[in-house]
Give the backbone structure.
Amino acid sequence: MNDPQPANEPLGHLPALLAAMRRLLRPLVRLAMRGGITFPALSDILKDLYIEVAEQEGRDGAQAPTDSRVSMLTGVHRKYVKRLRQDARDRSPEPGMPRGLSLGAQIAALWNSRIEYLDDDGAPRPLPRQAPPGEPSFDGLVASVSTDMRSRVVLDEWLRLGVASIDEEGRVQLVRSAFVPSAGLSEKAFYLGRNVHDHLATSAHNLEGAGPPMLERCVHYENLTPEACRSLMVVAERSGMRALRAVNDRVQAGGATARPGEPVWRMNFGVYYFMEPVEADPPEGNAVQEAPRDE
């Protein structure tokens, strides 16, 4: 791991950082083009974000930076800064997690952690819609999280999203042991914004060296066969789910929720796996590298 850059050396002037920016933006640009988002639209978003971040970074205590200060920090011409700042104040706040998605995540978290909802291997087991008192059921699972939402409504939405299915015995089965919708653009877009933001924020924090490093590790190989990549994906998903369940179990065990008046924090721990064909000639042998350790 390279040592953090000195605080007085502007990170934006580093060729390596610019090269990294170019690489990480490529899939975003591809996604924007496929979604019909043109360069002027994305450019306007980026310009707004420069203004927003400059207002946060340039504050002197409670005092907001002047238009001239924001212009100096961002490179955006001063005559546009005032208008963009006013537009930002008039804009509606960004929406948070959709209520149905938040409720579904809570239900799935319980299904993945409570012993009565797990099979002998510790995986979420299929649940009957209804069951006698004292026996686990999907209706009881939903009611344990919210009495305001009918379980039929939750089930219909989960079936639409591909999160749940009905097996041959009429039981509700959690298709994915983590709550990741396979359908529903707005739901998937929410997770895209949150998860990629948090991963980038972790990387930026570690690169700046402003505090103790946060966990970010990876292992990557070149010169592999497609069959090996598909096999490793199965291994990664199984081991990753064990780690996710361990964190989920710790929260569900109690004692982690902030009490009224206490500072409120949030966390996000995730795993991902990526594979793609390599067009260029692969290097000789295999290479493995870990990202910076969290020590």
Notes: Confidence is low (pLDDT under 50) at residues 1-8, 289-295. The longest strand covers residues 164-166. The chain has nine helices and two strands.
